[in-house]
Amino acid sequence: MQFVGLQPAGALIRAVNTSNLDDCEGVLAAVPYARYGSGEVPLFDECLRAGKPLRFYGRSDGTCPIDPRVLQWLVDNAARGVDCRLVPHYLHAKVIWWQGQGACVGSANLTDRAWNQNYEAGLFLTDEELERDGTALRLRAFFDQLDDASFPLTQEECDRQRELDRSQRELRQQLYRLQHQFEDGHTHLHDRSSPITAVRKHGSAERRRRNFIKEWNGTLELIRSVAAQVASDQFRPDWIAASVPAGVQCDQFLHAYYYLRVEPHKEKDAYQREYEKHRANPERALRLALQWWKAGDYPHANEARTIVERAPRFRKWFAEDHILQLTETQWAETLVGSYAFGDHTAKMRNESLGLGPDPGSDAKKEAHARLLYHARTISGRHSALEAFRYALWGAGEAADRIFTCTEDADYKLPNIGPNILGEIIGWVRPDEYPPRNARTSKALRSLGRDIKIL
């Protein structure tokens, strides 16, 4: 946890943004007031330069809380990953969530004074801290509430706000009357009842569930079609036995392609460069990649180890009739074989795992796995083994269970998200669900496929 405020009391909000923006997945922000300052809008322009998707919730009422020039900027950049929704009347929170990195809850609006001059105060919580006690779930629920209570920004709404602002500048003495006239005649603003006493019951969480399931299942179908080609005699390299499940073969093909051909260690977000190169003809990109895979002229010891050792271990120990009887050692030795688990663990602080400085990646993964073995879900209702058994073997659609295990406090485990669960269900049940994690998605996007990076 970090205090956010004027130095030396804490870091400036703009410094927090700078340190978290590059490595985040996207930004969710709920801030009532936004104004231009020094030729830019704080946060917005930085997101655009960094290529990070931005979803912004601002306040809307008869006082023009969002500068009409800022509203026009939001409209103009909608095609570049900027999404804006307006919350009538009662938005007063100042929350910025750099997803995958952490969130700041404080007092700063998106103005030059707030980011550079005022005595502002807030707290920044890392992604790990948000996960630990379920704050991430409550933060998601907060944004769901805003989604239900808001309406989308359009050019027409921008024009209305601009005209209102012009009238206010010319007729300040009539400001109060103008505000109420504008609000009374506005479809989304005429209701001034407080959300505390008038709770709206909409379904943002349910919409997100439906969207997640649709996207997940659609991507799995794509992976299945790629897996069928990877496992065929035409493209299967000689060092892989024909008996290896197609889902496992496909995952290791995508793993090798991503790290050996895309080379993300040389350029941040290298998959985006490859996507632009191949999106016009993804079938050709896949065919060339499969030919490279078939030739086998590359180091593949890590992939071979996964196929021969790691994947079979998941199928054995996480089987439906055995997972609840796992010993701590069996659990830890298996879980550390997950790429997504290791990738997330690498971002965790050593002290939170009970480790000293520089313990090494293997020690971190084992420590995290052993801590998780004794953990319970956010609500305390289920053990880690019970939550994993539900995700892997419960009733209903796998995508629906994965969503539940990342959004429902009864099944959500700290630091376990859809990438980890999506990969592990693929190792355990590869004939039904090929593994999927963030690296899988980036590899597919590198091949020109319009895939969402979770």
Give me the secondary-structure topology.
Elements: E1 2-5, H1 13-21, E2 27-30, H2 44-50, E3 54-60, H3 68-76, E4 82-88, E5 95-98, E6 102-106, H4 112-116, E7 121-126, H5 127-132, H6 135-149, E8 151-152, H7 155-170, H8 175-184, H9 204-230, H10 246-262, H11 270-278, H12 282-295, H13 301-317, H14 328-335, H15 339-346, H16 361-373, H17 384-393, H18 398-407, H19 418-428, H20 438-446
Parallel strand pairs: 2-3, 3-4
Antiparallel strand pairs: 1-7, 2-5, 4-8, 5-6, 6-7
Annotation keywords:
Endonuclease, Chain A, 20 helices, alpha+beta, eight-stranded mixed beta sheet, single chain, 454 residues, 9% strand
Describe the model.
The chain has helices at residues 13-21, 44-50, 68-76, 112-116, 127-132, 135-149, 155-170, 175-184, 204-230, 246-262, 270-278, 282-295, 301-317, 328-335, 339-346, 361-373, 384-393, 398-407, 418-428, 438-446, and strands spanning 2-5, 27-30, 54-60, 82-88, 95-98, 102-106, 121-126, 151-152. The protein is an alpha+beta fold and 454 residues long. The protein folds into 2 domains: 2-202, Endonuclease Chain A (Endonuclease, Chain A); 205-446, no CATH class. Strand 2, helix 2 (44-50) and strand 3 form a beta-alpha-beta unit. Helix 13 runs antiparallel to helix 14 (328-335). The longest helix is centred in the middle third of the chain and has 27 residues, at 204-230. The two termini are 25 Å apart.
